[in-house]
Amino acid sequence: MEKQKTIGREFFLEGKGLQTGRPVRVFFYPEGENRGITLMRRDLEGRPSVRLGRSVDFDADRRSKINLGKGECIETTEHFLAALWGLEIDNIRIELDSSEPPALDGSAKLFLEALEKAGVKEEGAERQFIEIKEPLWVEDKGAFLGVFPSAGFKISYIFEYPDYSIERQFFSEAVTPEVFREKLAPARTLWFVPPGPGSIRQKASLARALGYGRGADENNALIITKDGIANKARFPDEPVRHKVLDLIGDLYLLGKPIKGRIIALRSGHKLNLELVKKIKECI
After folding, report:
1. Which residues are catalytic?
2. Fewer Cβ neighbours under 10 Å: the N or C end of the chain?
3. pLDDT single digits (tens) 28-61
4. Cα dihedral sign, 216-219-221-223
5. Nearest of 6, 15, 70 to residue 38 by alpha carbon
6. What is the chain written as a DSSP string?
7. Are the C-beta atoms of 145 and 24 separated by less than 8 Å?
8. What are phi and psi of 182, to 5 degrees?
9. Could you tell me whether strands 37-41 and 49-51 are parallel, antiparallel, or unpaired per DSSP bridges?
C-alpha cells in the first residue's frame, strides 16, 4: 500500500516569471495527510487560495491559468506541479507573491532538486489515485489527446510541427518517478519563433512587447525556428520530452495521480486542460 507524502520542511525559491518577467518568490510548506495541494496568492487581498482537484477552475485556452476570482489567477504552474508528481507529493501548500512561479531553468529540474533537498516525508494515510474507467479523448485541428484504462501510467506522445524543420519525435514509456527524474525533468520549455523577416532577437522583443514570454531567454527556453533548434539542446529529443513534462504537470491539476494509458499527438496546454475537464466530469 502506497502512503501519502509531503515535504520535510518549508523553503522558498525566487526568480522571474516565464510569461510576465516579473520578480517572484514561491514558498513551499508541509501539509498533513489528506490536505491535498493548495495554491495561494499571498500578494492579493484576502490571500485567495485554491485546492487542486475536482473543484479547481481554470481557463483551457491558456497554460494552467487557475482562476481565483475577481480577474486574478495563478498561471504557468505545470513545471512545479510536474515536479510534485515526480516526487509523489500529495500534500503541500504553495504560496506565491505574484501570478506565476519563477521560471528557473525553464524545466522541472530545479524544482525537483529543491523539493528533494527539503526532504520527502511519508505520512500515514493511503495514497489516492484517479483510475480511468472508460476511454476519454479530445481533439482539435489534427491534434489528439486520449486516456484509456490501465493499471499503471504510460504516455505515448508524437511530436511533429510541419512548419518547423524538426523531425518527428516519439516518446513512449511507463512513466515512473525514476523515468521522470532522468528523462523528463531537465527538458526545458519550448519557444517557437514564427517564420518571416527579422532576427530571433527582434522577434523576441516583439513577443515580449505583446506580453508573451517576458521572462524567457536562451538559457531557460529551447528556441525553435523554421530551420531547427537555435540553441544547445539538453537531449536530441528535448521538444517531445518537454511536451510530456507539461502534460504531466497539467494532469496534476486534478490533485491526484492518474492510473491510465495516455496517447497524444501534437497535444499542448489547450488539449491537456480540456482532457483534465473531461476527467473531472467523471470522478
Report:
1. 269
2. N
3. 999 999 999 999 999 999 999 999 998 899 887 6
4. positive
5. 6
6. -PEEEEESS-EEEEEEBTTT--EEEEEEEE--TT--EEEEETTSTT--EEE-STT--EETTSTTEEEEETTEEE---HHHHHHHHHTT---EEEEESSSS-B-TTSSSHHHHHHHHHH-EEEEEEEP--EE--S-EEEEETTEEEEEE--SSEEEEEEE--TTSS---EEEEEE--HHHIIIIITTPPEEEEPPSSSS-HHHHHHHHHHTTS-TT--TTTEEEEETTEE-S--SSTTHHHHHHHHHHHHHHGGGSS-EEEEEEEES--HHHHHHHHHHHHHH-
7. no
8. -85, -35
9. antiparallel
- Pick the closest to residue 115 from 88, 96, 97 (CA basis): 88
Q: At which residue does the C-alpha cell 493499471 appear?
A: 151
- CA–CA separation, 13 and 35 (whole Å): 22
The 10s digit of each residue's pLDDT in 160-190 is: 988 777 889 999 999 999 999 999 999 999 9
**Cell for 69?**
476570482
221-260 pLDDT, tens per residue?
998 888 888 899 999 999 999 999 999 999 999 999 999 9
Q: What residues does 121 pair with on adjacent strands?
A: 6
Q: Write out pLDDT tens, residues 222-233.
A: 988 888 888 999
The CATH code for residues 3-129 is 3.30.230.20
* The amino acid at 120: V
What's the pLDDT score for residue 164? Answer: 78
Residue 91 CB neighbour total at 10 angstroms: 21
Sorted by sequence, the CB contacts under 8 Å of residue 45 that are 6+ apart come out as none
Q: Which of 127, 88, 90, 129 is nearest to 259 (CA)?
A: 129
